Amino acid sequence: MAGEHSRTAFVLADGGSLRAVQIGMPLALTEAGLRPDFVIGSSVGALNAAHFAGAPDLAGVKQLAQIWCGLRRADIFPLSPSGLLEVVRGSGSIVDPSQLRRVLEAHLSFARIEERACPCM
């Protein structure tokens, strides 16, 4: 329709085990010259979307791929017998989120979502 503006979004879905593989979509689109008006993600896709929102260009996507290739499960989700015991007792969780927080703080280019270069939901 006349007067309407189209908007482009990159949508990065869940897929914990596909975390690095998922980077192929924004890589291909960015290489093709597409730039989103905003990015959306859920679960691990939200982590990828947040990183992309801070560096919405080819270099940012390549950096994200390198980050995922360098991480191991224990870097983000360290399992421990004490965590399992707390779950059995009903007083905690299996995974301590502090490792994930450290990874995010080390790799995101912004501290607050309002500071990102591209809108992110």
UniProtKB/TrEMBL annotation:
<feature type="domain" description="PNPLA">
    <location>
        <begin position="10"/>
        <end position="121"/>
    </location>
</feature>
<keyword id="KW-0443">Lipid metabolism</keyword>
<feature type="short sequence motif" description="GXSXG">
    <location>
        <begin position="41"/>
        <end position="45"/>
    </location>
</feature>
<dbReference type="Pfam" id="PF01734">
    <property type="entry name" value="Patatin"/>
</dbReference>
<dbReference type="InterPro" id="IPR002641">
    <property type="entry name" value="PNPLA_dom"/>
</dbReference>
<protein>
    <submittedName>
        <fullName>Patatin-like phospholipase family protein</fullName>
    </submittedName>
</protein>
<dbReference type="InterPro" id="IPR016035">
    <property type="entry name" value="Acyl_Trfase/lysoPLipase"/>
</dbReference>
